[in-house]
Amino acid sequence: MGALKVDSLKNKREFDCIFRNGSRFDTPYFSLYILLPKQLTPKISQKAFRIYQDIQSRKADVYLGLSVSKKIGCAPKRNLYKRRMRALCQDKSFKGLCLVFVPKIGIKDLSYADFATMCQKALKYTYKKSQNIASRVYA
Q1: The whole model's pTM is what?
Q2: What is the bridge-based pairing of β-strands 30-35 and 23-26?
Q3: Is 74 helix (H, G, I), strand (E, B) or coil?
Q4: Are 64 and 8 in contact (CB under 8 A)?
């Protein structure tokens, strides 16, 4: 089986949908917003649900939004962090997710192995949180 198909979020409304409805995981190095299909509860607005359907209609395995500020560093540094995040999204555990990655200034001190470990922790945290939400809504 080949690598996962990663598609990017295209516009502000797609980013905002993930920001408002996804789970946020903060570290001193980055913030990661993750939207799982389980998090689309009946409480979500119709507009947000339509935006999510538009995103899903592109038929990719992972949807990734990158928001890397110039405060992070020069263009080669910013591109390095984007490449790392795209490479990490090739992992099968990210399949079916919508992600927005926002690095912070401290990311300069983070190795790739530590970065990958923190992203996996974020994923576990989000799955655990979504199970709690789903159990409260559908119970």
Answers
A1: 0.83
A2: antiparallel
A3: coil
A4: yes
> Could you give the CA distance from residue 26 to residue 104 in angstroms, rounded to a whole number?
10
- Interatomic CA distance for residues 40 and 99, integer angstroms: 14
Query: Which of 102, 60, 97 lies closest to 78, judged by CA?
Result: 102
Domain hosting 27: range is: 6-138
Paired tokens of 66: 């990158």
Burial of 78 (C-beta count, 10 Å sphere; 0-12/13-18/19+): middle
The token pair that represents 14 in the structure block: 């797609």
How far, rounded to the nearest angstrom, does the alpha carbon of residue 139 sit from its chain's CA centroid?
A: 27
**What are the beta bridge partners of residue 99?**
34, 64
Q: List the alpha helices (DSSP H) in 42-111.
A: 46-56, 75-88
Residue 130, domain member (yes or no):
yes
Average pLDDT per 10 consecutive residues for the chain, totaling 139 residues: 82 90 89 80 74 86 92 93 90 87 91 91 82 49
| Inter-residue contact 30 to 85 (CB < 8 Å) | no
Which CATH number characterizes residue 82's domain?
3.30.230.10
